[in-house]
Amino acid sequence: MNNILKKSVLNVAVATVLTVGFASSALASGTIGPINSMTQAPVSLATVVAGTAGSNETVVQGTISNNADSGWNIAVASANNGSLLRAGTLGGAGSEISYTKYHLNSTAGAGSMGSVATTPYTVNVPTAAGTTNFNTGVATTATVAKNYELGVSWNADTALLAGIYSDTITLTVTTNP
Fold it and tell me: pTM (2 decimals)?
């Protein structure tokens, strides 16, 4: 009996070692770096006609990429405080076309807009300094090479003098804090 008990204990011990086995695990990890970029190309305005309002006239086009979970912001700044000025002048009556609105427009083509809390594709009234911001709020997916256009609008003015009117518009994309 004692011999049978020893064999049974030995069989249980061998079976336990064979069925328990060994396991190991490893942590897989990696880092995705921040992406925050914008391309932009100026677009020449069509002929501006005195006495005719401009409506969402495209002045800049390009692409936006950003992968921050806080989303992104585009700051718009105008060298002429939100106006097209006639060459050789400081603006004023007859020589200045003031913007009444900035339009950030989504355009067709390659790229994808991230899933964001707020659509940045809106119409904003410029500040007295000719600036504005377009903001997405938080994002749950990245914006990847999304095409956009910036347009401007202005009121009709029959007192405009002949000449070349211009402005330098700067767009800056930043990650929301």
Answer: 0.81
Residues 19-38 pLDDT 10s:
566 788 889 999 999 999 99
Domain assignment present for residue 7? The answer is: no
Number of domains in the chain: 1
Tens-place pLDDT, residues 90-138 = 999 999 999 999 999 999 887 999 999 999 999 999 999 999 999 999 9
Domain membership of residue 40 as a residue range = 36-175
CA-CA-CA-CA torsion sign (47, 48, 51, 55): positive
CA–CA separation, 158 and 8 (whole Å): 108
- Domain with residue 112: its CATH number is 2.60.40
* 140 closest CA partner among 157, 162, 118: 118
Compute φ and ψ for 11, nearest 5 degrees. Answer: -65, -40
